[in-house]
């Protein structure tokens, strides 16, 4: 791994010096890397094969076409620590080019969306609570990659990433943050209360989402639909009593619930060492088997969640996962995030462990994409985010007629008391 | 012709050969749940001792035997956890009935009732419904002391997004519980343990499996002309008893049974007050910020104020934690004599 990274960084340093990573440098890189990584691929019908080159031919990569890209590659991934499990997820992950591009696109979109939200918040266009997810993208993407759209997911308040991976458009997320009628909750929910099909928010009360998730899992079991519920919480929430109550019932009743602790090392300003007598969050389920997963590696997360989902679908009951991850921002926009950790620590994660960079390096070093192609994707994403931000800024606020709607479902219209006895407001379902 | 209505149970008796049935409140609740479980397979019951024990107060007797583990679920003593699980199940398409052994224990789970259940339809702008019923005995019992005797009508009645229902008799219990289970909103269903064993007459119509009472509508239990008594739950019975005594002295009380705490049927109360000109509210809960306080405020703010011949007053539980000793407990809750006394004071008798 170290050698591979050296090779890659050499190329990039060269690239930085000349502002143009030459095709020759890339081809030499590929040859160098072929020592470490299996660049051959099983037959992929969609990709036309190149005729074999005579031995000794130097690979000259001049005009790059997509047909030149490696269709898929296998990557070694970090082995998971196991609790009460004989075996865990595979220590190797197969990534196709399509998947790689999709994961890259998704993670980069979440990253850019969160940074845009940061910007809008500082401009006071977003207000109230705003808990940003940048740094943790591999968790949301890895999970979504490993489950089905028909599975269920619930999380806490750091929810924008999941709102996106569960299918809500960036513009609807940003417009919800700016409190406009085009927001996914029509501006009535805000940052912590966004919902979508099979996505139950966005929950503001720390830990409350965990019994809710176990309940969704109970519904899956009750309805016999072979679906699972992914129930997320943070290291800060991990000591909540209601989580242990949920563990108990989920284990007793063998609910198909995947409990996932996103451990980003800090519950607001309190480090895990200061909050938890045991920081082995994947073991805190006690009688429930657990996995500790590298949450910065999207492939690691994906393999782990596939393993966990298979486990639950087999009727074996719940499972606990701990994703080791990191948030670049503070707890929320009112927290600079440097009073309880050093800037050096944050910078170190950015340079050495960034989930998007890791994926990018993997793909480039295996000829699964090119710098140009990824740059193009970045530009597309930038446009999506800019358009979404424009929408979020220009969309009108909800009409005052909306104020009292959605108190009750499927009920005839009713009157709601206003701020004084003469104000009689109307509420429709 | 004489017949047993509903499912064959030993617990109620056939009376006359007119189609009228003596059903106590417990059995009314039991039959309502049984019929709704049968009607809709998404309905299920969970709570402590609801299954194999037949219910701590035997309200769910026979249901586990009939419907089994899947639909009648015994939970561990973890209110916050199982209330949250019930709400989550409602999110995902089921229609849970979540029993609190008494509403006192709901305080352990109150966050799930308010923040997860009540507010979600609004926060999601109508995307996520929460068709759940929370039910259990509420208010004072007999000799169970302070931590087991609180009335939660005002607490839950305070919160938008919830429906809060407080039945008095068997007709109320049956019709309102069926309505609550069929309602797509979170309903807080406040029963009363002292009423469970009390029998009432139910007509054939009331025994029909689709008999529902609309939530949000009060009932005038007794017509009157001199004063309006507004009450809910067990105190409705006390009001009727007080009215019978007062009738002998020529005072005709109109007794309004709220049936629903939220949404409050202000129209029925106002119409009654505009007719009688006097109002006394009667409740078992504490006075400060209570149900009676809300009713009086609404009357002040509405058209009925101009019809009042005297200030509206409240009869409530004493503003103390419930004591244990019988003599103290008896003096902590409104009695019939307190209602009679207050009526006479208001009427300046």
UniProtKB/TrEMBL annotation, chain A:
Q: Which Pfam families match?
A: E1_dh
Reaction catalysis annotation: N(6)-[(R)-lipoyl]-L-lysyl-[protein] + pyruvate + H(+) = N(6)-[(R)-S(8)-acetyldihydrolipoyl]-L-lysyl-[protein] + CO2
What is the originating organism of this protein? Esox lucius
Coiled-coil blocks: none
Q: What is its EC number?
A: 1.2.4.1
> What is this protein identified as?
Pyruvate dehydrogenase E1 component subunit alpha
Query: Which residues belong to any copy of the Dehydrogenase E1 component domain?
Result: 106-399
In the record, biological process GO terms are: glucose metabolic process; pyruvate decarboxylation to acetyl-CoA
The record's section on InterPro entries has: DH_E1 (IPR001017), PDH_E1_Alpha_Subunit (IPR050642), Pyrv_DH_E1_asu_subgrp-y (IPR017597), THDP-binding (IPR029061)
* Job description of the protein: The pyruvate dehydrogenase complex catalyzes the overall conversion of pyruvate to acetyl-CoA and CO(2), and thereby links the glycolytic pathway to the tricarboxylic cycle.
Report the locations given in the UniProt record: Mitochondrion matrix
UniProtKB/TrEMBL annotation, chain B:
Q: Which cofactor does it need?
A: thiamine diphosphate
The reaction(s) catalysed by this protein are: N(6)-[(R)-lipoyl]-L-lysyl-[protein] + pyruvate + H(+) = N(6)-[(R)-S(8)-acetyldihydrolipoyl]-L-lysyl-[protein] + CO2
Superkingdom classification of source: Eukaryota
The family database entries (InterPro entries) matched by this protein are listed as: PDHB_mito-type (IPR027110), THDP-binding (IPR029061), Transketo_C/PFOR_II (IPR009014), Transketolase-like_Pyr-bd (IPR005475), Transketolase_C (IPR033248)
Q: Which Pfam families match?
A: Transket_pyr, Transketolase_C
Q: Which UniProt keywords apply?
A: Carbohydrate metabolism, Glucose metabolism, Metal-binding, Mitochondrion, Oxidoreductase, Potassium, Pyruvate, Thiamine pyrophosphate, Transit peptide
Q: Does the keyword Transit peptide apply?
A: yes
The family database entries (SMART domains) matched by this protein are listed as: Transket_pyr
Enzyme class, UniProt record, top EC level:
oxidoreductase
A GO molecular-function term, please? pyruvate dehydrogenase (acetyl-transferring) activity
The record's principal subcellular location, in a coarse class, is mitochondrion
GO biological processes: glucose metabolic process; pyruvate decarboxylation to acetyl-CoA
User: Where is the protein found, in the record's own terms?
Assistant: Mitochondrion
Ranges for domain Transketolase-like pyrimidine-binding come to 23-198
Subunit (UniProt): Heterotetramer of two PDHA1 and two PDHB subunits. The heterotetramer interacts with DLAT, and is part of the multimeric pyruvate dehydrogenase complex that contains multiple copies of pyruvate dehydrogenase (E1), dihydrolipoamide acetyltransferase (DLAT, E2) and lipoamide dehydrogenase (DLD, E3). These subunits are bound to an inner core composed of about 48 DLAT and 12 PDHX molecules. Interacts with DLAT.
* PANTHER family registered for this protein in UniProt: DEHYDROGENASE RELATED, PYRUVATE DEHYDROGENASE E1 COMPONENT SUBUNIT BETA, MITOCHONDRIAL
Q: What does this protein do?
A: The pyruvate dehydrogenase complex catalyzes the overall conversion of pyruvate to acetyl-CoA and CO2. The pyruvate dehydrogenase complex catalyzes the overall conversion of pyruvate to acetyl-CoA and CO(2), and thereby links the glycolytic pathway to the tricarboxylic cycle.
Write the protein's name.
Pyruvate dehydrogenase E1 component subunit beta
Gene source species: Esox lucius
Gene transcribed to yield this protein:
PDHB
């Amino acid at each position: 791994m170290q050698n591979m990274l050296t090779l890659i960084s050499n190329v990039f340093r060269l690239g930085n010096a000349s502002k143009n990573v030459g095709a020759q440098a890339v081809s030499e890189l590929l040859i160098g890397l072929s020592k470490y990584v299996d660049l051959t691929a099983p037959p992929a019908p969609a990709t036309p094969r190149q005729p074999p080159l005579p031995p000794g031919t130097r690979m000259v990569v001049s005009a790059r076409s997509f047909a030149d890209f490696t269709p898929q590659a296998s990557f070694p991934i970090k082995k998971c620590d196991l609790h009460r499990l004989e075996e865990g997820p595979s220590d190797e992950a197969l990534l196709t080019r399509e998947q790689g591009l999709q994961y890259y696109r998704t993670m980069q979109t979440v990253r850019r969306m969160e940074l845009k939200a940061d910007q809008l918040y500082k401009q006071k266009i977003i207000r109230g609570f705003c808990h940003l997810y940048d740094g943790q993208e591999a968790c949301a993407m890895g999970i979504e990659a490993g489950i089905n759209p028909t599975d269920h997911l619930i999380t806490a308040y750091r929810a924008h990433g999941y709102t996106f991976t569960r299918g809500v458009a960036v513009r609807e997320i940003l417009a919800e943050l700016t409190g406009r009628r085009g927001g996914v909750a029509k501006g009535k929910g805000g940052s912590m209360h966004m919902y979508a099909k099979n996505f139950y928010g966005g929950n503001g009360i720390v830990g409350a989402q965990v019994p809710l998730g176990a309940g969704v899992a109970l519904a899956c079991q009750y309805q016999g639909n072979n679906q699972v519920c992914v129930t997320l919480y943070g290291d800060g929430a991990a000591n909540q009593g209601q989580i242990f109550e949920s563990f108990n019932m989920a284990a007793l009743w063998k609910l198909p619930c995947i409990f996932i602790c996103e451990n980003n090392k800090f519950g607001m300003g309190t480090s895990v060492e200061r909050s938890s007598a045991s920081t082995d969050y994947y073991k805190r389920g006690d009688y429930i088997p657990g996995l500790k997963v590298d949450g910065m590696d999207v492939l690691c997360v994906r393999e782990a969640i596939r393993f966990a989902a298979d486990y639950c679908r087999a009727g074996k009951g719940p499972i606990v996962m701990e994703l080791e991850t990191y948030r670049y921002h503070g707890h929320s926009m009112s927290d600079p995030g440097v009073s309880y950790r050093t800037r050096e620590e944050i910078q170190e994660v950015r340079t050495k462990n960034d989930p998007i960079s890791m994926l990018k390096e993997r793909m480039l070093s295996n000829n699964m994409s090119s710098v140009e192609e990824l740059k193009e994707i970045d530009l597309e994403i930038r446009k999506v985010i800019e358009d979404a931000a424009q929408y979020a800024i220009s969309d009108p606020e909800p009409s005052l007629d909306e104020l009292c709607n959605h108190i009750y479902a499927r009920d005839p219209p009713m009157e709601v008391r206003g701020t004084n006895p003469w104000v009689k407001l109307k509420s429709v379902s | 012709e004489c017949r047993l209505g509903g499912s064959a149970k030993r617990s109620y008796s056939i009376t006359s050969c007119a189609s009228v049935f003596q059903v106590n409140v417990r059995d009314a609740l039991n039959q309502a749940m049984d019929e709704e479980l049968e009607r809709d397979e998404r309905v299920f019951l969970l709570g402590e001792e609801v299954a194999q024990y037949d219910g701590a107060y035997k309200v769910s007797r026979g249901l586990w035997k009939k419907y089994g583990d899947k639909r009648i679920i015994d939970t561990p003593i973890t209110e916050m956890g199982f209330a949250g699980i019930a709400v989550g199940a409602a999110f995902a398409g089921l229609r849970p009935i979540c029993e609190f052994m008494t509403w006192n224990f709901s305080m352990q789970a109150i966050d799930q009732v308010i923040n997860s259940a009540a507010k979600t339809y609004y926060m999601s702008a109508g995307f996520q419904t929460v068709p759940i019923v929370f039910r259990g005995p509420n208010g004072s019992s007999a000799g169970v002391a302070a931590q087991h005797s609180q009335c939660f009508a005002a607490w839950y009645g305070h919160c938008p997004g919830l429906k809060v229902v407080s039945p008095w008799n068997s007709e109320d219990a049956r019709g309102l519980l069926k309505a609550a289970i069929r309602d797509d909103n979170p309903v807080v269903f406040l029963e009363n343990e002292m009423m469970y064993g009390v029998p009432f007459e139910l007509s054939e119509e009331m025994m029909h499996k689709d008999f529902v009472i609309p939530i949000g509508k009060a009932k005038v239990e007794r017509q009157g002309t001199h004063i309006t008594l507004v009450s809910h739950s067990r105190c409705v019975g006390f009001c009727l008893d007080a009215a019978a005594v007062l009738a002998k002295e020529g005072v005709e009380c109109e007794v309004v049974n709220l049936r629903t705490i939220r949404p409050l049927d202000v129209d029925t109360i106002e119409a009654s007050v505009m007719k009688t000109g006097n109002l006394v509210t009667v409740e078992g809960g504490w006075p400060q910020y209570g149900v009676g306080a809300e009713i009086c405020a609404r009357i002040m703010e509405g058209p009925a104020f101009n019809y009042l011949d005297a200030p509206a007053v409240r009869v409530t539980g004493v503003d103390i934690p419930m004591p244990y000793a019988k003599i103290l407990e008896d003096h902590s809750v409104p009695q019939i004599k307190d209602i009679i006394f207050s009526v006479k004071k208001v009427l300046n008798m």
